[in-house]
Amino acid sequence: MEKKNIDWSNLGFGYMQTDMRFVSTWRDGAWDEGGLTDKATIEMSECACVLQYAQTCFEGMKAYTTADGKIVCFRPDLNAARMADSCRQMKMPVFPEEKFVEAVIETVRANAAWVPPFGSGASLYLRPFMFGIDSVIGVKPANVYQFRIFATPVGPYFKGGIKPLTLRISDLDRAAPRGTGHIKAGLNYAMSLYNIVDAHEQGYDENLYVDSATRTFIEETGGANIIFIKGNTLVTPKSDTILPSITRRSIVQVAKDYLGMEVEERPVRLDEIGQFEEAGLCGTAAVISPIGKIVDHGKELTFAGMGEKIRKLYDTLTGIQMGTVAAPEGWIQVI
Ligand code: PLP
Ligand code: COI
Predict the structure, then answer these.
(1) Does the N terminus or the C terminus of the chain have fewer Cβ atoms within 10 A?
(2) Are 59 and 82 in contact (CB under 8 A)?
(3) Ligand 1 geometric centre to CA of 243 (Å)
């Protein structure tokens, strides 16, 4: 299999149409067989539930080329389980979890020529998603759904690669208590668009949200969880209104089991973050992106950027993903 002729090392985080995508349709109470197609566009009613009432959710995951030339995915079973949670909350049919993993494997295999080579710094981003496709005008769930997975090669999520980020404490909220902050619904991202454009216009890389009920505790950014470091301790917010990041859950285990760090998963107060030495955003797209500064209404809190501990976490996690560090049982799915 010959790789595509792409300047892998200079890819940004963008969409590129690849050869094949997976499609399955749910109708009359059941999923069809599903399969690959080369057709990258979707035709639907002007009144489709997804267009009118945003009935859609998605996942984000990556395929990598390892040091010894295999193609692998990182913990796809957890993406399958989280997508099932999102679907239940959005009143959408669950795509069976084992079938989800099989469909991911099929999609990656069909696009093997698009998986960036080891050492390029790029990976193949996979976007599983589901949406209500039939016409709905009264507010209610759709009757017909599509589940799809497309693949696109990507580089770093943030412009400038791993240069330390500057965040601002957001005045707007991302997630309500008892709302949808803990699932990966498109609507959570739609309502963040105004705020992200504003943050960029004001010179910030991202918005850091606090809890909307009390504005006391740190939550996460629009597209990643956050970790803080002090000495040998990793601290990360515990909250019912943030997305349960697979990267963050993996980092917690790496910190404890590989680096011998202490870990505190607990509510983190906005007024305590000044004492932390290092901080980073974590997610599939963000990987671990070091934070240089968090600005709280004119008050600047500075962090070490790619400090010693963030660097070790980054090297160990990406080493596990790319096959240079031994992985815990079940983390790596060989394609
Ligand atoms: N938080 C939000 C809001 C996200 O969109 C993402 C991205 O998926 C994450 C956190 C990180 O989650 P994961 O590590 O599972 O990619
Ligand atoms: C991911 O990390 O996979 C996401 O879905 C985050 C998104 C902001 C790109």
Answers:
(1) N
(2) yes
(3) 6
Single-letter code of the amino acid located at 70: K
Ligand 2 atom at minimal distance to the Cα of residue 285 = 2
| 47: CB partners within 8 A, 6+ apart | 135, 136, 137
Compute the distance from residue 169 Cα to the ligand 2 centre, in Å: 20
Residue identified by tokens 């980054």 is: 314
User: Can you say how many angstroms the Cα of residue 241 is from the centroid of all Cα atoms in its chain?
Assistant: 16
At residue 274, does pLDDT exceed 80? yes
pLDDT at 112 over 80: yes
With 80 as the cut, is the pLDDT of residue 122 above it?
A: yes
Q: Of 126, 134, 133, 129, nearest to 148 (Cα)?
A: 129
| Cα 117 to Cα 70: distance, rounded to the nearest angstrom | 10
Q: How far is CA 226 from CA 14, 172, 279, in A?
A: 23, 18, 7
- Active-site residue list: 184
203 residue type, one letter: G
Distance in Å, CA 60 to ligand 2 centroid: 6
Does residue 1 have a pLDDT over 90? no
Q: Ligand 2 test: best mutation among 74, 83, 124, 157, most atoms within 8 Å of CB? A: 157
Q: Which of the ligands is closest to the CA of residue 206?
A: 2
The confidence score (pLDDT) of residue 159 equals 75
pLDDT band at 134 (very low <50, low <70, confident <90, very high): very high
Percent of the chain with pLDDT over 70: 99
Question: Which residue from 23, 16, 19 is spatially nearest to 103, judged by alpha carbons?
Answer: 23
Which position has the token pair 């960036």?
A: 116
- What pTM was computed for the model? 0.97
Atom of ligand 1 nearest to the CA of 220: 1
